[in-house]
């Protein structure tokens, strides 16, 4: 079974600093990987996804992630944090079970951005 | 495109009553919808997978009789929490898989806004 590990349940950065949220996965097949963001009392919004092709994926709000097969990682980065980036971030891997896809989520990382 | 809407956003009910939460795909047909439960400061826990016109598939440990799921049309799935108790208080989130061809093989999901249930 596939699984996702997010290192660091809480990350705090200064406004303007680099954001790095870590995600490692385990999968016996080429994975489809996703990053979602959740603001308080809201559902999840897709930031970006990797399916096939280019390993550096650009998403919304200036975020990007790089798929590294050798490291089984899909870390999320943003060069310069903004106050509005404060939220919960979830990494997920797509698993095919019984002929259909379902997402397996990591535990989440709460990003705090301080002035 | 690919908007999923949940209703209600907030619901407070008395212990022992039943509560229905609706999940609608507004601009696409969703043959498959998923229901998640999220406890405070925790990740999403998949409860069940709902396929239009058939019985839902529940994850291990989820009570089928407690959490009734109906997916009667390609744009609507409902979750009914029956005989709710305080321990059922949680944030429930639905998601839907997009149109075949583009999303089916990747597993990308579109999420509703979530419904916060508080059982007194």
Summarize the structure.
The complex is a heterodimer of chains A (115) and B (120). Chain A contains no helices and twelve strands.
What does this protein look like?
The complex is a heterodimer of chains A (115) and B (120). Chain A has 115 residues and is mainly beta. Chain A contains no helices and twelve strands. In chain A, the strands form three sheets. In chain A, strands 2, 5, 6, 10, 11 and 12 form a six-stranded mixed β-sheet that branches. A four-stranded antiparallel β-sheet of chain A has the order 3-9-8-7, with no helix packed on it. A two-stranded antiparallel ribbon of chain A has the order 1-4. In chain A, a hairpin with a 5-residue loop joins strand 7 and strand 8 (64-68). Chain B has 120 residues and is mainly beta. In chain B, strands 2, 4, 5, 6, 9, 10 and 11 form a seven-stranded mixed β-sheet that branches. A four-stranded antiparallel β-sheet of chain B has the order 1-3-8-7, with no helix packed on it. In chain B, a hairpin with a 2-residue loop joins strand 7 (67-73) and strand 8 (76-81). The radius of gyration of chain B is 14 Å and the shape is globular. The model of chain B has no long low-confidence stretch (mean pLDDT 87). Chain A binds chain B through residues 32, 34, 36, 41-46, 49, 51, 90, 94-96, 98, 100-103, 105-108, 110, and chain B through 4, 6, 9, 32, 34, 41-44, 46, 49, 51, 57, 91, 93, 95, 97, 104-114, 116.
């Amino acid at each position: 079974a596939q699984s996702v590990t997010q290192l660091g349940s809480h990350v705090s950065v200064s406004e303007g600093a680099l954001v790095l949220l870590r995600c490692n996965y385990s999968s016996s097949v080429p994975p489809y990987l996703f990053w979602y963001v959740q603001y308080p009392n809201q559902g999840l919004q897709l930031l970006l996804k990797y399916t096939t092709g280019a390993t550096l994926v650009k998403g919304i709000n200036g975020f990007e992630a790089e798929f590294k097969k050798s490291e089984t990682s899909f870390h999320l980065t943003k060069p310069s944090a903004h106050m509005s980036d404060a939220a919960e971030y979830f990494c997920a891997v797509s698993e095919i079970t019984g002929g259909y896809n379902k997402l397996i989520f990591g535990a989440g990382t709460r990003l705090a951005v301080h002035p | 495109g690919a908007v999923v809407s949940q209703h209600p956003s907030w619901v407070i009910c008395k212990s022992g009553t039943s509560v229905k939460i609706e999940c609608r795909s507004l601009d696409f047909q969703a043959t498959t919808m998923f229901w998640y439960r999220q406890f405070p400061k925790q990740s999403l826990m998949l409860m069940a997978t709902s396929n239009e016109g058939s019985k839902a598939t529940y994850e291990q440990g989820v009570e089928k009789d407690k959490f009734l799921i109906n997916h009667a049309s390609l744009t609507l799935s409902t979750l009914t929490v029956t005989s709710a108790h305080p321990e059922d208080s949680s944030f429930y989130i639905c998601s839907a898989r997009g149109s075949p061809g583009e999303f089916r093989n990747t597993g990308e999901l579109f999420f509703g806004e979530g419904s916060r249930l508080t059982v007194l």
